[in-house]
DNA sequence: CTAAAAGTTGGAGTCGGCTCCAAGTCAAGA
DNA sequence: TCTTGACTTGGAGCCGACTCCAACTTTTAG
């Protein structure tokens, strides 16, 4: 049988771009499960852990607070999410958020593009808070032809 | 001639979803220009200001630190960005970041979708840190058919 | 005239997310 | 044997981004 490759915390940090301190911190606040230890107490990481840490780092880049990441990890660690209906609901909810965030980002890109190839323009953001209605689920497809909402400059 | 509509800080807060305190804070740190005042010292906001605040709020949702937003505002306020080549470079740089962030987010969506309709899977994040090479500029188009990078589960 | 509502200021406090110690353990090399 | 280096722990400190407060000035309603 094959041996599963194991990594030190330093190697893990290098591979994920997350610092050792931060990895330990995530473990401390139980965002990551307590890592396996060697006899000398040193942490050992597996491919799976590295993927998990990458996922965290990825979510972090999107501005998600650490507390909101927990549902992702629950799903990431456990076997079947279908066993936890509440978790599934949370995940769906997060999906919506992210999709709408993609739309926001796409608008920022549009904003920049506009600014870069003409002088004056200001894009709008889709705003899930405004008028408390459900976030409209904009599909990634739909998003790509997002048109400019209004213009401010002279005609 | 028409009168330009003006808003109180409260109305502005309501319309943008940014609290009054935060708006004042942004002004304090000069992220927003000092707002026009009425005779009694109360701040007055115009459509333009509201758009600017929405832009900030939009950028914030993406996890961008306030300091990084300044270039956007410079462009937003000034006339022609082409006058400031360094600013243009910064904007392009930010555009790249955002595009790659969109890709990250899309992967998170994929991750969730996978998790939701089968049991176990773990996606990867595109990682600009790893091996210091330039962020590959993934176009929004290209992104929409992002395929799953690898799979861990059953065939 | 008084009271409540909506604003102003400066400054203090809070909270999330690290980041940086100091003190200690262990393993390998000169 | 001594030192170097990679790790461990608990805890303190820091910074960004608010958030709250006290003291004050209007303005509007009753």
TrEMBL record, chains A, B:
Q: Which UniProt keywords apply?
A: DNA-binding, Repressor, Transcription, Transcription regulation
Q: Pfam families, from UniProt?
A: MerR_1 (PF13411)
The superkingdom of the source organism is: Bacteria
- One GO molecular function term? DNA-binding transcription factor activity
Looking up CDD domains in the UniProt record yields: HTH_YyaN (cd01109)
Which PROSITE patterns does the UniProt record give? Answer: HTH_MERR_2
Q: Give the protein's recorded name.
A: MerR family transcriptional regulator
The top of its lineage is:
Bacteria, Bacillati, Bacillota, Bacilli, Bacillales
């Amino acid at each position: 049988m094959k041996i599963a490759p194991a990594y030190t915390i330093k190697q893990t940090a290098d591979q994920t771009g997350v610092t050792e301190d931060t990895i330990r911190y995530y473990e401390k606040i139980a965002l990551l499960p307590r890592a396996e230890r060697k006899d000398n107490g040193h942490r050992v990481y597996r491919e799976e852990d590295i993927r998990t840490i990458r996922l965290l780092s990825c979510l972090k880049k999107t501005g998600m607070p650490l507390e909101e990441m927990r549902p992702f990890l629950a799903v990431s660690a456990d076997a079947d999410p279908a066993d936890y209906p509440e978790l599934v609901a949370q995940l769906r909810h997060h999906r919506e958020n992210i999709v709408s965030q993609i739309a926001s980002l796409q608008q920022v890109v549009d904003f920049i593009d506009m600014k870069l190839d003409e002088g004056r323009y200001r894009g709008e953001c889709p705003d899930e808070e405004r008028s408390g209605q459900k976030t409209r689920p904009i599909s990634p497809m739909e998003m790509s032809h997002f048109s400019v909402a209004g213009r401010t400059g002279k005609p």
